[in-house]
Structures
1.
Amino acid sequence: MRDQPTEAPQQKRNRVRPLAEATMSLMGYGPSNSASPRELTQNPLKKIWMPLPCKNGLPDKHISQRKVCMTNCPTLIVTVGLPARGKTYISKKLTRYLNWIGVPTREFNVGQYRRECVKIYKSFEFFRPDNEEGLKIRQQCASAALNDVRQYLTDEGGQVAVFDATNTTRERRETITAFTEQNGFKVFFVESVCEDPKVIAENIVQVKLGSPDYTNCNTEEAMEDFKKRIECYQNSYEPLDEVLDRHLSYIKIIDVGRRYLVNQVQDHIQSRIVYYLMNIHITPRSIYLCRHGESDLNVKGCIGGDSGLSPRGREFAKQLGQFIESQQISDLKVWTSQMKRTIQTAEAVSVPYEQWKALNEIDAGVCEEMMYEEIQQHYPLEFALRDQDKYRYRYPKGESYEDLVQRLEPVIMELERQENVLVICHQAVMRCLLAYFLDKTAEELPYLKCPLHTVLKLTPVAYGCKVESIFLNVDAVNTHRDRPENVEVSRMAEEALLTVPAHQ
Amino acid sequence: MPRELRQSRIQKIWIPSKDDKPAVPRRPTGGPHLSNPPTVIVMVGLPARGKTYISKKLTRYFNWIGMPTKVFNVGEYRREAVKNYSSYDFFKADNENAVKIRQQCALAALRDVKSYLTEEGGQVAVFDATNTTRARRDMILDFGSENHFKVFFIESVCDDPSVIATNIMEVKVSCPDYQDCNKTDAMEDFQKRIECYKAHYQPLDPDQYDRNLSFIKVIDVGRRFLVNRIQDHIQSKIVYYLMNIHVQPRAIYICRHGESVYNLQGRLGGDSGLSPRGKKFAGALSRFVEEQSLTDLKVWTSQMCCSIQTAESLGVPYEQWKPLNEIDAGVCEELTYDEVKEKHPEEFALRDQDKYYYRYPAGESYQDLVQRVEPVIMELERQENVLVICHQAVMRCLLAYFLDKSAEEMPYLKCPLHTVLKLTPMAYGCKVESISLNVEGVNTHRDRPEEMKKFPGTLIRRNSVTPFTSPEPNIKKPRIDDLDEPLQELPPSPATPPTLCSAPHLSLALTGQNLKRRCNDCHEILQHCK
């Protein structure tokens, strides 16, 4: 471990979600015709090697200010499709995913701009193609949204913007393409096509009737009005065309994922988007998340390690078995990590289970199997750094939460594909998974409360996820350590240990 | 009553110890077996649409990620049955005898698919043939449902004459069918062969007839894709992979960091900086990269000091990948081999037994490493010119992917310090050039001890299929004996030299056609670095 003066972590507190670079980061440019390579120094927080101050004497930019490599040119994702085709669902979900994997993304919903502008919605008449005033307002809203897109992608550090609107005419799409060309953004279209009246009606009921447009309206009237609204678009709808739009990069999602048409994928981020959109589905299901039963090392207040269950942990495993039985879940998949305590827990559930190494607990490196008191004693600097920026902090020879998110990405992808799943995992892992489903920021993620012996049941609803927390009535130690007031390196040991939960 | 757990010694996996049997080796997904029923991938398309290219590439990828996969190329069955190819007449729809032979070849291949998937531990079979008619595809679908295999179609559609001509020149005119033929004649005959199929070609129809099938249509070499009804994890992986590969000419350069201080001391792992010779290599690498004058070269490093120091001297932008970090030797990190032997004698011996599956206590195995570098491979497929500056074990994993090496060979591949491997994709394989930059470096390669070489690793042996190398076609005596008509009616076959078509056994370095000479060269180069 290095005893270097620490720099205060740079936490961007602006509106941009500060999830930092993904798996990799673009390093600075070395001096061309480099006579001698630059010396390296390790960033004490993230344990990343970077060159010492450059020739001009100024320090290199902090790594989080550099761009994520695979998306060095910002991308505008543009949805296309008639109303009630799941465009907003896709936009929100994609935005959540990209933010979680560390690509700063924001959605811009033109409908919201319109609602801001025209406070009171009267009826579908507003959307009629011959309603000139309506047309003008809608156009203004679209330009206002694009203005904000530009600001987000050029000034606020955004990497991806999702422009969520119908964009059903080629003319509108050409305007957007021109806008992206002017600003040096890449553009990728996501069109959702669906003719199944049942799916459309379901969508209207789920998300449209609750919209502010219809607060003072009964269900039938709202339904009726919304259908007319769809008709307003139908006549002028020009779907993306295999021939006319052959030069565009796009994915066409047909009948909620029964079929896809993918055209001219240009880069890494587009390829990831396509892969993600192909894996999500909207079949109702539940995801159950829990930690292993209390382990011997939990009882001792030690982190990491690979110990077995305590007697209370075994009792929890038994209770979990009964709970799962009582839920009568069809085709339940059970996933564990490759650590003893999760496998022991799954064994008691008496259903087949699958082990993922990717679900193993965060690697605490040199701090494995230590109590917080010991970490404070041996590595006070590390301990303080971790409190300063818990998400980005990497244990010496270990991992950070940020690393963990990368490691868990394939698990999330497969969770999206599956239906009912019970994931038996670990505290830090569960926090990462939960942050994905509940759209939590990098700041919140490492402090999410995931107590032992408690099952979280996640059920997708509308644009989000319903969470039920079920405590299985088996006592366990508390392993949650809150962020203490004082996170300075110079703090006293007592201050650092103030929030350590009680243990043996 | 929950069963007690114990940890397997090689893979360090917790397993219920109810029975005393050792663990079934896990598939290296690092996780679940997400592919319960086996899958038959069925290629569809006219000749020279890259079906064999896709088949071989996909097979190599799947074997590498640990999914036992094999190609069944009906053309090879046909060549085995009919030794002497005379002309495209054979493919005419009205050539009844030939139609029968082709049908029998397809059936023979399907029988082999069945035995591969049901008895030999195969997970995925790639049925590589034109399969251009609905009748043929329906027959395969019936075969699939009879045997409880999932069926996934990959159709390659391409109407660009220049792409087709390139393909014919690259892989068809050199195929054994045309060995006694000049290139122009071969080209012409092959074009006619395509015409024979064109008349009866029924592309997959996403709107009506085939709307319920699972398939991907690859249009114009990846310009566009149509994906219909993906059913499971494997199919989704296939689609993702096919969307990321491309056929642009390019080169991938792989090397290790310059010699590090720990290399000099003979220590494993750690995060030390470059030795003076290592720095010299970094300078030599910089000159080498300049000499190659590559357009748009991407440089990737791990997040370890020695690889970043090496990249720094290039004076070009580079990107750091944590997944490229060296294998985590867990409790053995920073020890010398002698110290490992002394402190962890049992571990030391176990590693020699099954180096691929062996996981260091609190560390990783090669199997784990493959899972970790898989996203790197995916991105390498997407990119064009790339220089990857990595580490010994990581380089072995990457190399095993490109050169189709087995789990047994991978951990012993020779990746010396201060040597750049240049990989150039060609035909169905990859050309390798090994370039030593003439800076001395310590030897960090530890061979498998002699007494261990006699038998394969226990886990590898127990796996009925050795993962990670695409199996060679083992077309036994062509099963045409049940043909009604004797084969004598066809021209007798002269004593033919062994085929060159798809001969991965020819060279470890190169799998391609008609590249024997060059491939011997490469072999020598590889020998040289031993």
Note: Chain B touches chain A through 60 residues (CB under 8 Å).
2.
Amino acid sequence: MATRAQFENSSDIGVFSKLTNAYCLVAIGGSENFYSTFESELADHIPVVKVSISGTRVIGRMCVGNKNGLLLPNSTTDQELLHIRNSLPDRVVVQRVEERLSALGNCIATNDYVSLVHTDLDKETEELVADVLGVEVFRQTIAGNVLVGSYGVFSNRGGLVHPHTSIEDLDELSSLLQVPLVAGTVNRGSDVIGAGLIVNDWTAFCGLDTTTTELSVVESVFKLRESQPSAIVNEMRASLIDTLA
Amino acid sequence: MKNKRKGKEIASDPSDEDDDHDASHSSDDEESESDENSTVNVDFEFFDPKPEDYHGVKLLLQNYLDDCEWDLAGFVNLILGQTRVGTIVKAGGDDPIGLITALNIRRYKELPSIQAIRDFLVKRAKNSPELSKLQALWQSDKNVGLLVSQRLMNVPLELCPPLHDAIFDEIAWATEDEPSVELRESFKFQQYLIQTRVYKEKVPKKQPVNEDGNFIFIKPEDELFFQLSSWHFTFPVQAETMLAHQTKGLQLLGLVMAVSAKQIKAFRSKLKGLVC
């Protein structure tokens, strides 16, 4: 199910929150409305944690994570790091990264199996992404743009990318990620998908400006219409061969 | 009766050839950089509100209700939906740099956005002697127009007379051109309610607080509205402005005024006098 939300009158909820299959991070300081929108959908299944990163509220763009781990920029303070580590499940590895491109959420787009990273990302960071997040890493651009985390959002079931992505790029990315992809917009025509949309395998949240058409595209490409949280959280992804058999 | 549109018809772009809107008034404007002797020509164009202007208008109205969380999206859609009365100003690009419109409070009173505005203003008027007048205005069955006017900081003064001519002319034409009697009546405003921002010098606590006067008006027409207003009140404002360093010693206040429709003619002539 996809829900609309807003953070202090801003539709850019992807800037102020981060959603994975194992946890949800939310910025401090939004009204309780924002927090309770997430809690009502998620609290029964995964922890919803209020955090800040280096004193800012733009946590969605600063960090990147999946069910295996979470990467934080080097500007994260020790107290913040400790708070996050304590609040997340033990199997989630929380790691601070020394990386010049510190807005990790803009530079890296990931699901539980594959990651796309900014073409200029350090080699060490790439290895850390592969280790901590437990993913296969690809350096890619989306519609010619290096900020893959800003212009593409994907889960284990589907992905939404910048509207100007060509068919060839869509095919290439789709074969790398092994999920169906669609080029589209959120928040009434905005092409910055990462700012307007957060998604995991059973639910998604879009900015309040998102039109009904955009919302239905999100629900269909991420296969949210009949999902049940418990089934997704616990299961392993079936390999392609199983579906052919 | 057909809509009478006077004023210069500028050479419109091919992309603007559209039956739905017309580029009506426009004013050529010269801004001179006195140091470098260079002149920048800017054409300000007036358009009817269109759905495409959504994001720009939303940005202009971001702080309309200070830091309150309310149905801003609904309010913007309301403004864009009223194409006959309302003007969006653009400076040669696609992005709105200014907006003016008048919304009949009674006509839209069921909408959550209008109710949010009412609740916000009533709450801010709690300590003011004008509270009862404000509440009476919201509950009255007279036609009260909420005049919403917002633009970027550095839009030149010369724009004000055409801008206000546009809105008051459109209101007058709407009383003749709207399809139903009810709609025509709804634009016969008897009062206008205006919410705007002003600066006031911060007084040291020992001196008595002087409510009236000594306002520094951000928009020049607000001063004229203030002089012609029936009543007004101010309230403190939380949201920060960009000019913090330039406005040291000044406090930003919200100002709400009610102006009788009979004063509009005087307002328009005074405004022209201010510019020339």
Note: Residues 195 and 206 of chain A are 9 Å apart (CA to CA).
